Amino acid sequence: MICFEPQSTGPKPAALTGVLATMPLTYPGYATGPLSLNIHKTFQLYACCILHISVSTLYLLTFLISHWPTTAATDIRTLTHSYSMKIQHLQAKSILNPSRLPGITYAINPYTGCQHACIYCYADFMKRYTGHLEAWGNFVDIKVNAVELLEQELQNKPKGLILLSSVTDPYQPLELKEGKTRSILKFLLKHQYPVSILTKSDLVLRDLDLIEAFDDIEIGISITTLNETHRKTFEPCTITTQRRIEALKELKQKTIPSYTFIGPILPGTTNLNKILHEVAPFSDFIYCETLNFRGKTEQLLQHVQTHTPELLNAFLFAVKHPHEHTQQLQDQVNLLQHHYGKEIKLFTHLPTRLRKEPLQNHKA
Ligand code: SF4
């Protein structure tokens, strides 16, 4: 008990040193006076401690409340994760990247890094280019000069479809506060550049005022599974799948061209039929993508074994028999395309050796 500690020249217990160091007052009987069991002094010390705890709690609550909007936290894990993030405002060297993705001419990434922290994300190769040592999902660099760069880099370039974004989520939680994506959209709207947005977040709805003013725009909402337990395991800091479906509904209501990106297809939990049942009425078309194991096989299998062992066999099958796995998905896609009357494209990540073999395209 600190109040009974005699005047001492020795070190104070470590746990108490921090608390005492922050106390602005000299406590009678503690720092300067002799040992005293005087009830009055004891009461004073207790009162000071309680005051300190109350002030600290109040400060913590104020901090959490004032930062809450930047987290868009869906659960305590998301919130905790948000506070371990390293967030930097940086001057970027460039912003417009030529893209080899089908139909896409340029990609713009307003941020480097992504708070969504998806376990399967292969954009983590960005760490190599930026020198970040933090785990993927634990850092975000905000490109403060994005719009200025865009203005320079788009000059004299032919117009083409611009993707927001290819290696980050343009509507990750901190976009709510930072607004980089919004400012880029404003600029693109001024020049009516054609835009394709792909996100896992319903924060995109915030920018409907801009989106509705574009002549040529499409919004893709990314979904991997309807199983919330699995969603939290693989995409720990994203919003629920249900909220994403609601976002698709709202886009449909506003008659904004929109699509669902089912990807990556996580073996054993991504149920194409069930997802399509939910999203087909609100999607103009559907893209699906197989899981890209390249360079991540061990890490992913380890994750599955630890967190979702019920999916392990399905993952192992996809790893050991990539061609059969992909063929099964292609067959499903062909049937579902017919059933739902929607255009559904499947993108695959077969090992190079197999990629050369064309997939049988069974007509349903
Ligand atoms: S949202 Fe996209 S970019 Fe962000 S971590 Fe997930 S997969 Fe990667």
Low-confidence stretches: 1-37, 62-77, 353-364
The topology string of helices and strands comes to HHHEEEEHEHEHHEHEHHEHEHHHEH
Major sheet, described briefly? 8 strands, mixed
Which fold does the CATH topology of the largest domain refer to?
TIM Barrel
What hetero molecules are bound to the protein chains? iron/sulfur cluster
Quaternary structure type: single chain
- Please state roughly what percent of the residues sit in beta strands, choosing from under 5%, 5-15%, 15-25%, 25-35%, 35-45% or over 45%: 5-15%
What percent of the residues sit in helical stretches (DSSP H or I)?
40-55%
**CATH first level of the largest domain:** Alpha Beta
Beta-strand segment tally: 11
Q: Topology, pairings included?
A:
Layout: H1 14-22, H2 39-71, H3 76-83, E1 86-90, E2 96-98, E3 106-108, E4 111-112, H4 126-130, E5 139-143, H5 146-154, E6 162-164, H6 175-178, H7 180-190, E7 195-199, H8 208-211, E8 217-223, H9 228-234, H10 241-253, E9 258-265, H11 272-279, E10 285-290, H12 297-307, H13 312-320, H14 322-340, E11 343-347, H15 352-355
Parallel strand pairs: 1-5, 3-6, 6-7, 7-8, 8-9, 9-10, 10-11
Antiparallel strand pairs: 2-3, 4-5
Helix pairs in contact: 5-7, 11-14, 12-13, 13-14
The site of iron/sulfur cluster has 9 residues, from loops.
